[in-house]
Amino acid sequence: MNRLKENVTGYVLLAPALIMLGLFVIIPIIYSFGLSFYSWDMLRPNPTFVGLDNYSRLLSDEEFYLTLKRTLLYALMTVPASMLLGLIFALLLDKGAKAWLLAYRSVFFAPMVTSAVAISVVWMWIYHPDHGLMNAILKPLGIGPFRWLNDEHTSLVSLAIMSIWKSSGYCVILYLAGLQSIDPHVEEAARMDGANGWHIVRHIKVPLLGPMTLLMLILQTIEQFQTFTQVNVMTQGGPAQSTELLVVQLYHYAFEMFQMGYASAIAITVFIIILALTLLQMAVVGRRVHYQ
Length: 292
Known about the structure:
Elements: H1 2-35, E1 38-39, E2 48-49, H2 53-59, H3 62-94, H4 98-113, H5 116-126, H6 133-138, H7 155-180, H8 184-192, H9 197-208, H10 210-225, H11 229-234, H12 246-256, H13 260-284
Antiparallel strand pairs: 1-2
Helix pairs in contact: 1-13, 2-13, 3-7, 3-10, 4-7, 7-10, 10-13, 12-13
């Protein structure tokens, strides 16, 4: 009886979260999957069933493959750099004064809770070709000036730099939490055996941070594949589609060209790609993870 009461209480407490998950995640995914088999411009009351035509069109669409390649390149630029910077700063903060730790955490985490639109506007000013901070810093070095967001050769890199700055703080917080969960006796024993600081980082801390590294690798990959706001605010996918990522392309077809069926096919395909990458990361990286 008590077990039943505990189960009922648990389900009641979970109900609000499960309802929200169903309404805003599960049902939209199912609806989008169903809509991908139809042609609908949102103006006609009844969608037209077209079967696999949207997927056939997608698989033969050269523009989609170029966008996928661009998105993969963007993720390769941002994910490793964000995690590496996060690890470096976390290692530095782990040895800092405990009294200042909360303040440091707040500073690093601030970009994650700040409006992406506001951040994008600030970085547009930083990248301004005539009055921007970036060119002002490089000018005394004899470098530039660059048309950061207005040149197809630098626009994607410019967005990647901003995303690295924005995401690395999140990695700092998670890595710092992982470092502080390591048993201090392990480090003490290593020092007694003659290990220096680099040996401890290389052979103890980094391996023990494996679970956190795997988690961040998966989360960061998902986040970068879903990049939309900064592109929409800063470049709108230009110039010459050089910053049009998958979600931006999806938005373009759905809400500018009103091809909801084809946009849904893109959404489901992106979901499958992210799921495949996640499973691949768990299979390849997960086997190298050491748990305490």
